[in-house]
Structure formats: structure tokens, C-alpha cells
């Protein structure tokens, strides 16, 4: 469904230090610097896949999505989305895709969302019966009710985002790019959005690419993740294998029936947190069974839980490692 | 094309609903374009002291100024466009992305959004038309029905020049930050060379010649001249042809600028 080869996007950005002298100098001579927002990435995505783009701020995730949806012209490389070259913005492609940006809206601000839905129906040439059926489905799944007849400006952020998503799906896109779709939403609304997105993918077989800073979004929705950092692809695989690669340890949470000293817990593995009644330790994956056995034998364990380290920590470590590697490389150069 | 024609009624209907939602804002814009009414007061006061002769040999009386400036006010309302500001804002904010994702050319969307205000503007200008018909200016209006048809066509031509000039200047936002300042310069030139502030007939000959070669006269001055009976029918048709040539040039030029500019769109912001 999506094929990307050697994709690059380089920007020329004006560089000017602060101050009057620099402002005057810039009148006569401007200095520019090149920013490599995306610097040669390759990947393929099959129809119906759900893929998460991960990376720190400024990594190139959104730039990649914008090139895939035809908003930005690549500096170099090849992109094929559903058999089309996105930068040509052919009508046939635009009818198959949609980009939902959590920080940009397509809903008409002073009109009810129903007007935007109707406008999209006409623009995307959705037959009336099909439109009604799809709208009924969206209203029911997203629990929109009478929200669609209230002016957009009177809706809460969460209500607006649900309507944004519905507006984006009126034409039944086969490829859905979601850029921070849950940004700013409360936890319960994030869950509603995730559930809906997963159900949409399962029902309609739509290909889905998601960027989000909320790791729960990625964990709940994306069996496959692509990590982009400084415009380059640093990982492409399952979320589990990413966690294994970055943090090949497991976290064991122990709850005690009697107070336990830190030294006793430390004998089992690296102590992450410790309180007399509860401790969290980190142990290598192949030592989990032994550590759990020892804990059960030697400590008054009431309850225990084994899980992967939190995704936020995994990502934070991954990004700090790549930053460190870059700094070493730059120093060597 | 058939696809677009089917979508246009809904685009117009939704656009009109939006225009109605912004009616108060529109009335404020109309109030901001009352310069011809101020100039009307100034020039009728001048004409009270005695008719104002022009170099072309025409004599401007109080009634001719009433007709000229009331028609100028009406024409200004009916040729209005503000797409340049909208494009500039959307390019800088990155919200143009949402338009570019839709399978309709963004210029067509701006066109519809500007056109839907016409019925509302017509309502606002209706009282001015009534005042004109019962004022001393009525005697100075064109008498020949065929010229009124040319006037109607010239309104469309004036609107197109104005709209596509807006698109062209708006498209400069893709490559420069200060395209709105260019619009300010454009409007300043429009004020002088379109006949908006003074009838071009009162200009010295060399300045009239300059104005004849610029597009501004064809935005506003020509429709006003046609409505106030300055031109014979053959002259009117020749000037209309020149106006539509300008409109075609702005159409082609603005779409070319758009095509080149959109490649440089940076879609700022998340």
C-alpha cells in the first residue's frame, strides 16, 4: 500500500543571531543553513497494517506524514501511496487518503460539524445512501449524538476531536494518517479515540499510520513501530522487539505482607523503587524465573507482577542513546 | 469538471451558511469601505461653488459626482475579495494543509467562499441603489439598456481581476513573509488609479494615460464609467474586451504563481 525509498526532505532555513547589528547585516547578506528534516528513509507498509511512527520532537515524523499525504514535496526519493505519487496530489489519491492532525482542524468553526460532513460528502462525491450509512456508523461508534448539530466553537476539545475524526472518515479513506490524534485529550477520551480507530481499521481494513507522544496510543494501536530520529530510520519492527532491544530487562513488582529492607530486595536485581511494603526491581529477561523463585522463597511476598519497562522509559533511553551516539560521531568528525 | 459542478451547489450552500454566520463582520467591512461616500461629500461641496471642468471637456456638476461616487460605492461592494489575507494567514499557520488534502483546487474553494458573500453585500447596497435612483445623480446614469448589460459583464470582469490579483498576491506568501504588505501597496495603487478616490476624468492627460494601461481602472473605474454613461456602446465593448483580457491574464498568472508556490509550501506546525 505504501512504498518509500530514499525519502529526503531538506529545508533551507535563515540563520540570524539576535540583536540590531545582526538585523542590519541580514538586510545585505543573509545566511542560510540546511535542515535535514528527513534524510533518506525506506519502508513498506502493507494494506490494513497499523504502524506507529515514533521519535522525539523534530525527528521528522510529521514531515514524513506530510510527504506521504502530498502536502510536502520531497527533496529526493520515491514515495508510492496506493499506486500514486503523493506530490502530484491526484484526485484519485486524495479520495483514498486522509491526514488527521490533532493541532489542525478542518471543521468550519462557526457552523455545526454536520455542515463540514455535508461539504465533504459533496467534495468527495460520496453517494447519498452510502454517506448516510457511514455517518450513522460514525455517530454511533463515536457517540456523537446531537454534537454534530451544535456550532463547532461550542464543543469541548474532546468532542471536537471526535467530530474531526468523523469528518475525516466521511469518504471512507483507505489510508489514514493520524498525527497526534489524542493530543490534549483526557485519559477517558484517549481511550474512546483509540478504540474507535482500532475498530475502524478492523472493520474497513484501512491502513493506518500514527504518530503520538502518548505511548499508550502506540501500545494499544500499533503492532509495528518505525522509529525516526533526526530524519533517519533507526528501528522498524514490532513493539515487543523494540522493547527487547532497548531494555532487555523485565520489571518485577513485589508487594509484601511485612516490611522488607532494601538490601534484601537488592539481592534479587536492580532496585527501581523501594518502600517497606512494595518494591520494583529490574532483572535480565533470562533471570526472571530465578529472581521470582528466590523472592517467593526468601521474602514475605503477597503479590507479584512481571512486565516490560514502561514504554516512555524505553523510548527515552532509545533517544538518549542515539543522541549520545551522534555527539560521539560529531566529536570524532 | 462534471464532478466539480456537482459539488459546487453544496459548496455554495455551506459557504452561504458561513457568510450568514459572519454577517456582523461583513457589515463592519462594508463600513470600512465608505470612502466614496466621504469623497462624494467633498466633491459635491466643490461642485456647489461651480461645475468642475475636466481636461476631456466634460463638466462635472454636483449630480454627476453623486452618481459617480454612489455607483463607486456599490461597485466596490460587489467586486470585493479578501483571499490574499486568507491565503497569507493559512500559509503562515499551516492550516492551508486542510484545503490541500481535499480533492478540489483550493483556488476554487476561495472563489466560492468569496462569491457567497455577494447576495449579502447586494442586500447591504440595496438601500444605496434606492437612494441613487431618487437622488440628483439619477439623471446622470446611463440610459441605454445595452450598456447596462455591458456594465453587468464589467462587474464580473472587475470581480475577476480583483479576486485573481488576491490569489496572485496570496500565492506570494509561499515564498515571502510580507505578501500582505504587497497587498497594502496594491490597495494604495487601486485607490489612486481605479477612480475610487477621484474620477480618472479629472486626472491630467498623462496620468489618465498611465491609468488606462494599468489594471486598476478595470477593477472599478470602468464599471462606474459605464453606469454613469460616459461611453458609447462601441467604446464600452472595446473597454470590456480590454478588461476581460486583464481578467484572463490575472487568472493565468495567479494560477501559475499558485502552482509554483505550493511546491514550496512548508505546512508549518503539527
Word description of this protein:
The complex is a heterodimer of chains A (333) and B (270). In chain A, helix 7 (187-204) links the parallel strand 6 (175-179) and strand 7 (207-211). In chain A, helix 4 (113-123) packs parallel to helix 6 (157-169). The model of chain A has no long low-confidence stretch (mean pLDDT 88). The longest helix of chain A is centred in the last third of the chain and has 22 residues, at 311-332. Chain A is an alpha/beta fold and 333 residues long. Chain A is 39% helix and 29% strand. In chain A, the strands form three sheets. A six-stranded mixed beta sheet of chain A has the order 5-6-7-3-8-9, with helices on both faces. Chain B has 270 residues and is an all-alpha fold. In chain B, 72% of the residues lie in helices and 1% in strands. Chain B has 13 helices and two strands. Chain B is globular and about 60 Å long. Chain B starts with a helix and ends in an 8-residue tail after the last helix. Classes of the chains: A alpha/beta (333), B mainly alpha (270). The A-B interface holds A 11, 62, 66, 69-73, 89, 91, 94-95, 97-99, 101-106, 108, 110-111, 115-116, 118-125, 179-180, 183 and B 3, 6-7, 9-11, 14, 17-18, 21-22, 94-95, 97-98, 100-104, 263-267, 269-270.
Amino acid at each position: 500500500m505504501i512504498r518509500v525509498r530514499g525519502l529526503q526532505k531538506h529545508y533551507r532555513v535563515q540563520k540570524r543571531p539576535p540583536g540590531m547589528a545582526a538585523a542590519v547585516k541580514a538586510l545585505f547578506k543573509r545566511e542560510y543553513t540546511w535542515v535535514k528534516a528527513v534524510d533518506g528513509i525506506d519502508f513498506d507498509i502493507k494494506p490494513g497494517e497499523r504502524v506507529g511512527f515514533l521519535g522525539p520532537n523534530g525527528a521528522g515524523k510529521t514531515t514524513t506524514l506530510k510527504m506521504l499525504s502530498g502536502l510536502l514535496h520531497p527533496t529526493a526519493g520515491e514515495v508510492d501511496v496506493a499506486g500514486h505519487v503523493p506530490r502530484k496530489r491526484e484526485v484519485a489519491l486524495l479520495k483514498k487518503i486522509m491526514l488527521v492532525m490533532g493541532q489542525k482542524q478542518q471543521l468550519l468553526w462557526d457552523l455545526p460539524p454536520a455542515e463540514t460532513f455535508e461539504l465533504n460528502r459533496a467534495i468527495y462525491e460520496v453517494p447519498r445512501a452510502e454517506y448516510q450509512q457511514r455517518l450513522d456508523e460514525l455517530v454511533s461508534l463515536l457517540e456523537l449524538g446531537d454534537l454534530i448539530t451544535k456550532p463547532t466553537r461550542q464543543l469541548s476539545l474532546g468532542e471536537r476531536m471526535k467530530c474531526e475524526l468523523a469528518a475525516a472518515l466521511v469518504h471512507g479513506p483507505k489510508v489514514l494518517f493520524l498525527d497526534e490524534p489524542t493530543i490534549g485529550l483526557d485519559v477517558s477520551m484517549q481511550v474512546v479515540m483509540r478504540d474507535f480507530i482500532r475498530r475502524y481499521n478492523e472493520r474497513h481494513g484501512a491502513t493506518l499510520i500514527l504518530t503520538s507522544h502518548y505511548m499508550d496510543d502506540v501500545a494499544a494501536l500499533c503492532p509495528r513501530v518505525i522509529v525516526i530520529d533526526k530524519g533517519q530510520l533507526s528501528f522498524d519492527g514490532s513493539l515487543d522487539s523494540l522493547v527487547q532491544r532497548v531494555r532487555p530487562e523485565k520489571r518485577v513488582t513485589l508487594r509484601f505482607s511485612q516490611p522488607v529492607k532494601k538490601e534484601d530486595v537488592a539481592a534479587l536485581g536492580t532496585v527501581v523503587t523501594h518502600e517497606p511494603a512494595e518494591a520494583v526491581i529490574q532483572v535480565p529477561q533470562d533471570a526472571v524465573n530465578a529472581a521470582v523463585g528466590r523472592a517467593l522463597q526468601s521474602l514475605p511476598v503477597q503479590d507479584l507482577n512481571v512486565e516490560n519497562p514502561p514504554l516512555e522509559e524505553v523510548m527515552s533511553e532509545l533517544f538518549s542513546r542515539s543522541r549520545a551516539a551522534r555527539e560521539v560521531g560529531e566529536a570524532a568528525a | 469538471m462534471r464532478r466539480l459542478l456537482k459539488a459546487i451547489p453544496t459548496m455554495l450552500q455551506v459557504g452561504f451558511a458561513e457568510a450568514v454566520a459572519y454577517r456582523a463582520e461583513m457589515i463592519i467591512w462594508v463600513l470600512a469601505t465608505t470612502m466614496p461616500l466621504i469623497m462624494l461629500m467633498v466633491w459635491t461641496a466643490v461642485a456647489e461653488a461651480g461645475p468642475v471642468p475636466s481636461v476631456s471637456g466634460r463638466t462635472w456638476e454636483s449630480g454627476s459626482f453623486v452618481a459617480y461616487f454612489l455607483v463607486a460605492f456599490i461597485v466596490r461592494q460587489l467586486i470585493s475579495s479578501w483571499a490574499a489575507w486568507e491565503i497569507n494567514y493559512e500559509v503562515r499557520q499551516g492550516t492551508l494543509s486542510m484545503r490541500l488534502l481535499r480533492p478540489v483546487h483550493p483556488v476554487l474553494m476561495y472563489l466560492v467562499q468569496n462569491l457567497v458573500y455577494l447576495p449579502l453585500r447586494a442586500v447591504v447596497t440595496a438601500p444605496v441603489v434606492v437612494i441613487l435612483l431618487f437622488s440628483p445623480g439619477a439623471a446622470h446614469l446611463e440610459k441605454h439598456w445595452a450598456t447596462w448589460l455591458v456594465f453587468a459583464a464589467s462587474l464580473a470582469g472587475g470581480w475577476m481581476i480583483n479576486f485573481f490579483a488576491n490569489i496572485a498576491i496570496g500565492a506570494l506568501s509561499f515564498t515571502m513573509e510580507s505578501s500582505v504588505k504587497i497587498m497594502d501597496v496594491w490597495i494604495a495603487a487601486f485607490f489612486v488609479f481605479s477612480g475610487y478616490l477621484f474620477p480618472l476624468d479629472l486626472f491630467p492627460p498623462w496620468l489618465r494615460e498611465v491609468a488606462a494601461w494599468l489594471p486598476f481602472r478595470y477593477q472599478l473605474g470602468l464599471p462606474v464609467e459605464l453606469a454613469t454613461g460616459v461611453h458609447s456602446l462601441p467604446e464600452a465593448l472595446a473597454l470590456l474586451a480590454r478588461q476581460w483580457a486583464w481578467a484572463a491574464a490575472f487568472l493565468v498568472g495567479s494560477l501559475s504563481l499558485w502552482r509554483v508556490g505550493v511546491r514550496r509550501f512548508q505546512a508549518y506546525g503539527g
